[in-house]
Amino acid sequence: xxxxxxxxxxxxxxxxxxxxxxxxxxxxxxxxxxxxxxxxxxxxxxxxxxxxxxxxxxxxxxxxxxxxxxxxxxxxxxxxxxxxxxxxxxxxxxxxxxxxxxxxxxxxxxxxxxxxxxxxxxxxxxxxxxxxxxxxxxxxxxxxxxxxxxxxxxxxxxxxxxxxxxxxxxxxxxxxxxxxxxxxxxxxxxxxxxxxxxxxxxxxxxxxxxxxxxxxxxxxxxxxxxxxxxxxxxxxxxxxxxxxxxxxxxxxxxxxxxxxxxxx
Length: 264
Known about the structure:
Oligomer: single chain
Shape: globular
Strand order of the largest sheet: 2-1-3-4-5-8-9
Radius of gyration: 19 Å
Number of helices: 8
Helix content: 25-40%
Distance between the termini: 17 Å
C-alpha cells in the first residue's frame, strides 16, 4: 500500500500467516479524509507534523502523497520529539495556511497543536484519530478554548444518531452503564472488535475442531456482517470495507460530531 515502509507488511509475519484484522478503516483512507477536510475548509497549503511512531509517520506519508493530488500544496512533513518542552522554533518555519498533526495525544500532541496555532498564517488545525479524543477537547488538559474553534479531527465513528438501531442501542447502553453523555468515539470500535472475535469463534466452532487457525480463517471470511458500525466485510489484508470518516469539532469543551467526510 502507498505510504508503507520497505518490507511492510510481510516483516510482521515471519511465518507467512496473516493474523491481523481491524474494524477501523486503514490510514490511506484517513489521510484522504484529512486532506478532503482541509480542502473543504479552504486550505491551499499544509504543514504536517508527525510523532515519528509507525502509526503517525505512516499517516503523515499518506497525507503527503494525497495532498498534491487534491490540489493542496504540501510545504513540509516534519517529525517532532515527543519529549520536547515546546515546538516554537519549528513552528516559526511554518508558512502554510493550515496545519495537520498525525501523532498521538500522548506524544505531546496538545503542545504541538498549540504551538502551530500560534503561527499567524495558520487558519485551521487538523489532527488524526490519535488526537480525536475527549481529553483533547477538555480545555483544562487539552486544546485551549481560544484555539478550539479552529481545530477539527478525523475518526471513523459518525454521529450516534446516524447509526442504525444496533448502533443507537450501543450508545444508549454505554451512556447508561458508564454515566457519560458523550462516549469516547473509540468505544463502539472496542465493542465491535470483541463482537467480531466472538462471532468468528462461533463460526469456527460450528465447523468442527476449534483451533486458533480456524478462528483466524473465520475472521478473514467475514462478509457483509451486520454490526453496530453498519454492514461491512473483512478483506484479504484484514481491513474493513468501511470508508466514511467523521469530522469532529470542539464545542464547549467537548468533542462533538461535525459532519461525515467522504475520503475522496
